[in-house]
Write a structure and sequence with these properties.
Shape: globular
Bound molecules: shikimate-3-phosphate
Radius of gyration: 21 Å
CATH superfamily of the largest domain: Enolpyruvate transferase domain
Number of strands: 23
Low-confidence stretches: none
CATH class of the largest domain: Alpha Beta
Number of domains: 2
Structural class: alpha/beta
CATH topology of the largest domain: UDP-n-acetylglucosamine1-carboxyvinyl-transferase, Chain
Distance between the termini: 31 Å
């Protein structure tokens, strides 16, 4: 298990290219595999999580070629070519599908597998095997699939596909994974399948389904899709991932003297809550060169070191910043005053219990933190105390605490950092390059 050593090496300055979006990379594999014909996806995220989705479709008989190019300007650009075989073109996988650490792979794939004329089994690593799957089992069972799980709705999942019937599903959780699973299962129904969410989760599936010719409508929190219609192949470029840019956005804000430009960042409004929160905390953030990339809003983001002030962050903003909670906690730890985050109960069932992980690790750095059932109260500090930090095997905890370590002259050690490869394989190299560029 790798560990990393972090220390402040002065201001962070320069430019970096944001790694490709993880959510969109998963969906690109899934939808292009189900389309009829050859799709090209540029700037695919070649990290462990989307590669689990890619391997799953290869196991089901889809040919997928990965071409890598390295360019001085664009960094690593991985292009994939997918020979989609249509909605009915998958074959029974010859073995258990291993979803690794990826909740997105397991939950969204369940929706596709629910409509297949074969049985399949999905498993994952110990973190994924302790994450709740009942949220997809319930609607997919209502549609007619048979899904067996461990007691309480935990993986492995054994999914026996069926001829599905459309449903109108009021989801108790605002979750893009649940919404996407039901919508993809809806492609296999005759009739219209509808999902109603309690809050708006990320909408990449809706945008991408529309782009490949599905009959999909969105009215506020209600999304519906007509089944039985084939999908067209895609020719697209994946934008950068705001959830990966977030570590450098916050690093640029809290490491004194820094100024960073992060290029090609997706700014989809269902994902951009962190930017709104940080601006309310007093951050100097500018969106430059705003444009559209394959149906998603994209910008270059410039950040300058800023003095942040603690604020109250409630559920609506948390949902639009759901994966940014760990790095937001680090921003709060360096802000003056108190930050109170509420309505964040979903964070307890992410790759780790992120409320507890961040509370414990920030306390090690001498930050007073009160753990609430659905949130945290953080008292910001001028100086953090370097410490030996556990990642809990959670990529976003590891990278967030590394950013905390970057603010202080003493050495902070982050243990168990292999998990960073699930979403951001080049993270440490980027940190080193920026410190060296001054
Ligand atoms: C994701 C949805 C979110 C997010 C996860 C990726 C997706 O999960 O936290 O990292 O790609 O659909 P939920 O659907 O559980 O909110």
């Amino acid at each position: 298990m790798k560990r990393i050593s972090i220390t402040n090496r002065g201001p962070l300055r320069g430019e970096l290219i944001c790694p490709p979006d993880k959510s969109i990379s998963h969906r690109a594999i899934i939808l292009s595999s189900l389309a009829e014909g050859t799709s090209i996806v540029r700037n695919f995220l070649r990290a462990e999580d989307p590669l689990c989705t890619l391997e799953a479709f290869r196991l089901m008989g889809i040919e997928i070629e990965v071409k890598s190019q390295k360019s001085e300007v664009r960094g690593q650009n991985n292009e994939i070519v997918v020979n989609g075989k249509g909605l009915k073109g998958l074959r029974k996988p010859g073995k258990v599908i291993d979803c690794g650490n990826s909740g997105t792979t397991m939950r969204i794939l369940s929706g596709v597998l629910a409509g297949q004329p074969f049985a399949s089994v999905l498993t994952g690593d110990s973190s994924l095997r302790s994450r709740p799957m009942q949220r997809v089992i319930t609607p997919l069972s209502q549609m007619g699939a048979r899904i067996e799980s461990e007691k309480g709705g935990y993986p492995p999942l054994r999914i026996t596909g069926a001829a599905l019937r459309p449903i109108r599903y009021e989801s108790p959780v605002a979750s893009a994974q649940v919404k996407s699973a039901v919508l993809l299962a809806g492609l296999y129904c005759s009739g219209r399948t509808t999902v109603i969410e309690p809050g708006k989760s990320r909408d990449h599936t809706e945008r991408m389904l529309a782009a490949v010719g599905a009959d999909i409508t969105v009215k506020g929190l209600e999304v519906s899709v007509q089944g039985g219609r084939g999908l067209r192949p895609m020719d697209m470029t994946v934008p950068g991932d705001l959830s990966s840019a977030a570590f450098f956005i916050v690093a640029g804000l809290i490491v004194p003297g820094s100024e960073l430009v992060i290029r090609n960042v997706g700014t989809n409004p269902t994902r951009s809550g962190l930017l709104d929160i940080l601006v309310r905390m007093g951050a100097e953030i500018a969106l430059e060169n705003e444009r559209d990339v394959s149906g998603e809003p994209v910008a270059d983001i410039r950040v300058r070191h800023s003095s942040l002030t603690g604020i109250d962050v409630a559920e609506d903003l948390v949902l639009r910043a759901i994966d940014e909670f760990p790095i937001l906690c680090v921003a709060a730890a360096k802000a003056s005053g108190t930050t109170r985050i509420t309505g964040a109960g979903e964070l307890r069932v992410k790759e780790s219990d992120r409320i507890s992980s961040m509370a414990q690790e920030l306390r090690k750095m001498a930050v007073p933190v009160e753990e609430l059932e659905h949130g945290l109260v953080i008292e910001g500090q001028q100086d953090l105390t370097p410490a030996v930090i556990s990642s809990y095997g959670d990529h976003r905890v590891a990278m967030s605490m590394a950013v905390a370590g970057l603010t202080e002259p003493g050495e902070t050690i982050i243990e168990d950092t292999d998990c960073v490869n699930t979403s951001f394989p080049g993270f440490m190299k980027m940190v080193e390059n920026l410190s060296a560029e001054k």
